[in-house]
Amino acid sequence: MKIRTITYGTDLEYPLKASKIRKIGRFLSKAKAVFENKGIGVQTVRMVTQPWPVYLRKRSLRMRLRYINDLEELCKENQIDFASIGTVQNPSHIRAIPEILSATSIVSGSVTIGNRKNGIDFLACQKTARSILEISRCTKRGFGNFRFAGIASCPSDIPFFPASYHEGKTCFSIGIECSDLVARAFCRAKSLAKAGHYLKLVLAKEFRKIDRLAQNLGKRERVLFKGVDISPAPSLVKDESLAYAFEKLKLGKFGGPGTLAISAILTRALRSIDVKKCGYSGLMLPVLEDYGLARSWSRGAIDIGIILACSSVCGTGLDCIPLPGNISAKELYAILLDVAALSIQLNKPLSARLFPVPGKKAGDMTDFKSRYLVDCRITNLKQ
Which residues pair with 111 in a beta bridge? Predict the structure, then answer.
């Protein structure tokens, strides 16, 4: 197990203050040391702001880009690995996102495509679909979509990107990578009846340790601790795959009958652990970020329908989904509508991070050459 991210939530203002970013960098450096001194690895530290139109208001795109570029450089100088500039809904703001992402390398953002109060935002879904296509064309190998998502019913200060946006008091939150512990628990359980029990036993001790250290850190530094997103973020390592962890319960291959039941059991066990929670706090199934999921996708064992079904009892929605480069805006729009509808119907946070790969068609392998992603075969939308 390791910490995927420690994420600091803050409000920014115009003009940008370098002293504020330095202060955030110092806090995150201290926070990282606290956990690493206890033997808990920390992969990344991040910062997230309130939605960028709040502090950039009606300034020109050129001035917005200069500000965001300056923010990115300050983050790099202060060892902050990633920055999120929050979520938007206004069509003019959505149109600016492809240019922002093409001009940056560690900045992410999102569009809110629906919530329980207002329902599906059909226009935002349409504009988001077009932005996904444009990002795929204006960034190398379409990789800019790694830093962009459509989100529905998502709370503020999710530690995982790109769904994160800040709201309220300055705070920090923690995201976990613990698919190795899920595999260990399911191997020990050896049956569905005992899976939830052993999973809770294995995870509770580790989560409580992180929760205790974070609570103490927040009090000492006078920064609100928002909570731990206990979603077991997956791993690129074969032996730590969530898909292969499911298969240790011997119901069959991931994606077949029983997958939905195991997803529900895992989520129920996670949410029964007594720690301060935030974010999604459910099962994550990002296809391109998990070795076994990528293999399952490549052979056609899972598709968008299966992952959406699992999202009904757990999860984050459709994450890191590889798609043909010639997919249409209409098809992307329909996918976003499904994610938003499911989120609203079940009143749960879901997101869609979709990867049309330029120049690739169904049957081709992706070629991202990224340390964050596993390459896999692109399949048709409908198996």
Answer: 88, 150
